[in-house]
Amino acid sequence: MTDPSDAEARAAALADRLRDAHRALRSLDVSDDEKARAARRLLAISDAAKHDVDRAALRLDSLLSDWEAGRVGAADDAGTT
Length: 81
Prior knowledge:
With 81 residues, the protein is mainly alpha-helical. The chain has helices at 4-26, 32-48, 53-68. It is elongated, with a radius of gyration of 13 Å.
């Protein structure tokens, strides 16, 4: 059984990371199309976090990794579920 306080802590940490990613998105120096694709991907991750915090955290890791590698508008391999 999962400790409720541990689950809450993971969710709070993810919420902080998502907030930071949304802020970072606004400052990206890319085309409007790339920024829009990145925003949709980030919103999908934010929505997924409501259902599965751990999977959303993995997807956010992938998104941030893509951004660091210069693949801002890359598709999310994890899908939207």
